[in-house]
Amino acid sequence: MFVMEKHGVYLGPRLRRLRRDLGLTQAMMASDLDVSPSYVALMEGNQRPMTAELLLRLARTYKIDMSALADDSTPELLGRLQATIKDPIFTDIEISPLEAADVLSSFPGFAQAMLRLYTAYKEEQFALADQRQVAVDRGGDEGADPVADVRRFLAARRNCFPGLDAAAEKLATAVNDAGGLQAYFMQRHALRVRRIPAEIMSGSVRRLDRHRREVLLDDCLDTASQNFQVAQQLAYVEFDDEIGKVVQEGSFSTESARRLAHRALAGYFAAAVVMPYKPFAKAVEARHYDVEAIARQFGTSFEQAAHRLTTLQKPGQERIPFFFIRVDAAGNVSKRLDSANFPFARHGGGCPLWTLHQVFSTPRTVVTQWLELPDGQQFFSIARTVSSRGGTFGVPRVDRAVALVCEARYAERLVYYRQPFTLTPIGITCRLCQRDNCRYRSEPPIGRQILPDHYRRTDAPFGFSD
């Protein structure tokens, strides 16, 4: 909110935004407010304050609420700007937090331009890393990969979209006041939510029937999945344009990638409605990141709660940054999310020494593990199986394993933390792991010459030259 000073308040960027939203020139606004065009220009440049009289005249003339001129995004933008200048690329440039605040206050357009440019820079960094990985893997497909595009888009933003979180939190309040998601749909959109047999859904879990004014759900879905699907449909019905604007900020090589990004953000919005940012962030600290307890509190699944934990990087309200991965029994990665740029966030997850691949033998049990990469970095991991589909006899259940990983320095904040502990040496993937004595290795690492075994057969699958 703005505060009226003795001689007025400086609202330059917000006045300029309002004028442009109204489709007016400076001369047209000056005529409406009975001031000179040069005075409007000076106010927009923060060289003249807006007096209380002029502010009231503005509100009466254009029939706007004065709160429309308030800028609640300043703390968020300042947090993002201060986080940006901590990037190693700016190491040799001394920029104090006070200077960052001055830039945002005096030159808000420049600050937003810098944030947009920095986000684009991070996306290109991830794209270059992926291209290099394809090149060294020899024979990899260098064509467009929509999944990789979306992962870069999310990673460049640390899988956090404060604007969507804010909108979802307001919507969650309205949904609660209405008596729940289904009641809100009926009151706000005259749409009835119905559960119908899977055979009638013809392979769909959710379908919007505008003709009959119904949202149809597969009746095999459990409660957590039903709520999520209804919330996601609400995201499409009520906030599709806002989600589309966020997608437009990304650099996608194909239409498939854009559609996947749109779907990912609709899912993000749905999770933010079911698990609003502030209450969820407060709960995770109170419960010491006990994923099962948090899931019960918000009526979600273990996977949904774990996924949501990767999004808690809102500037000024950050929680522990996590890496999340989901694999099937064959080791195929179907979901990979990162809020901290972990080294195995794009290509890792395939090391058999990681308990992620062993929890299928102990279903629905949380397994903890301390991990150490070849370069000495240490992490803490929790892994557990999750299930989807099923729900009735004859419908196959899909079992997968999920893991949450954080840096070792955060581990003592988790309910899973125990002493003493033993570090398990793992690699990012066999192709990128240079450990020469691993009995679990499936292929040789890049850049190492394999030794012949005419005279000696090593204990490990491959022997390497120095």
From TrEMBL:
Listed transmembrane segments: none
Organism of this sequence: Rhizobium gallicum bv. gallicum R602sp
An example Gene Ontology CC term for this record: cytosol
UniProt cross-references to Pfam families, sorted A to Z: HTH_31, Peptidase_M78, ScfRs
GO MF terms held by the record: DNA binding; DNA-binding transcription factor activity
SUPFAM superfamilies: lambda repressor-like DNA-binding domains (SSF47413)
Name of the protein this chain belongs to: XRE family transcriptional regulator protein
Domain HTH cro/C1-type: 15-69
Alphabetical UniProt keywords: DNA-binding, Plasmid, Transcription, Transcription regulation
Similarity-based family: Belongs to the short-chain fatty acyl-CoA assimilation regulator (ScfR) family.
